[in-house]
């Protein structure tokens, strides 16, 4: 994939806007609140903000179907299982996993303890990272987990990362149009190691349409609709092919939950994993 300097700058600017939207909409607070309600433990309670717990309790009082709350509770386990599968495909001795809108999830803390050879980076708005560090002050942070505060509305991800080149990046598609998300996908290979993998959670229209109350959840509680919805697995394959990504694999949350023996979540989100295209430039050129 060859880009001129002008194209590279344009894609970088578009991707920076998308990543800033992911930081702006803090849906992870709702997920953390649901985990504190359904999977109470000292850690899940510590990571749950009052706002997230209020949203989760409101959903329960509204009679929201168990599958929706199961989705919020199960999501980190799905991400963890996908990361386990794909770090095994990385030839680097110490692969790097990046979540640029990590929020209040516990998955990287858990995985850092489980996979000491893997380097995990949680990046989010400085206010979120400072709050999360405060909430985790009773928990030892593994040496292979790094928390970085960076406002991606003010600086691009490559600047925030410095010399770090991740092998796996998790980027959600819920808050922007498909066209904008594709610009982010075009940008990521510029900052990643060759042959890296992108984990791309998409809002899934069939799962959302089956649950009217879920639309209320998104619109009334989270205050944003799932803009980047896809209506089929084929649509995801088309998106990835359009940006020259390879080896796309699709994971549904309900299938993963059955395989892992967890309560079955609603498929309001679908996870795609794809390998980035090859580049003809050094990723460091973007930072120069």
> What is the count of distinct domains?
1
Number of strands: 7
**Biggest sheet details:** 7 strands, mixed
Major sheet: arrangement of strands: 3-2-1-4-5-7-6
What is the mean pLDDT?
84
Q: What is the H/E order?
A: HHHHHEHEHEHEHEHHHEHE
Form type: globular
- What distance lies between the first and last C-alpha atoms, to the nearest angstrom? 19 Å
Describe this structure in words.
This protein has 288 residues and is of the alpha/beta class. It has one domain (5-287): Rossmann fold (3-Layer(aba) Sandwich). The chain is 48% helix and 14% strand. The chain is built from 13 helices and seven strands. Strands 3-2-1-4-5-7-6 form a seven-stranded mixed sheet, with helices on both faces. Helix 6 links the parallel strand 1 and strand 2. Helix 1 (5-24) crosses helix 9 and helix 2 (28-38) crosses helix 5. The longest helix is centred in the N-terminal third of the chain and has 22 residues, at 66-87. The two termini are 19 Å apart.
């Amino acid at each position: 994939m060859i880009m001129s300097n002008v194209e590279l700058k344009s894609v970088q600017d578009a991707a920076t806007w998308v990543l800033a939207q992911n930081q702006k909409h803090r849906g992870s607070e709702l997920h953390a609140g649901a985990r504190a309600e359904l999977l109470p433990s000292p850690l899940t309670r510590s990571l749950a903000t009052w706002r997230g717990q209020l949203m989760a309790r409101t959903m329960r009082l509204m009679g929201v179907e168990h599958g929706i709350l199961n989705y919020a509770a199960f999501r980190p386990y799905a991400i963890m299982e996908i990361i386990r599968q794909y770090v095994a495909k990385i030839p680097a001795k110490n692969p790097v996993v990046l979540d640029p809108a990590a929020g209040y999830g516990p998955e990287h803390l858990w995985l850092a303890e489980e996979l000491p050879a893997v380097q995990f980076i949680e990046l989010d708005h400085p206010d979120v990272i400072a709050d999360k560090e405060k909430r985790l002050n009773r928990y030892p942070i593994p040496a292979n987990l790094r928390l970085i505060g960076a406002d991606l509305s003010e600086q691009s991800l490559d600047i925030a990362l410095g010399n770090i080149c991740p092998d796996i990046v998790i980027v959600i598609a819920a808050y922007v149009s498909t066209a904008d998300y594709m610009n982010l996908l075009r940008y990521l290979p510029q900052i990643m190691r060759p042959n890296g993998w992108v984990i791309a959670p998409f809002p899934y229209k069939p799962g959302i349409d089956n649950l009217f109350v879920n639309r209320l959840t998104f619109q009334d509680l989270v205050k944003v609709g799932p803009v980047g919805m896809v209506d089929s697995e084929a649509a995801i394959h088309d998106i990835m092919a359009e940006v020259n990504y390879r080896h796309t694999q699709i994971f549904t949350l309900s299938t993963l939950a059955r395989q892992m023996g967890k309560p079955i979540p609603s498929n309001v989100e679908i996870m795609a994993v794809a390998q980035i295209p090859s580049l003809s430039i050094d990723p460091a050129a973007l930072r120069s």
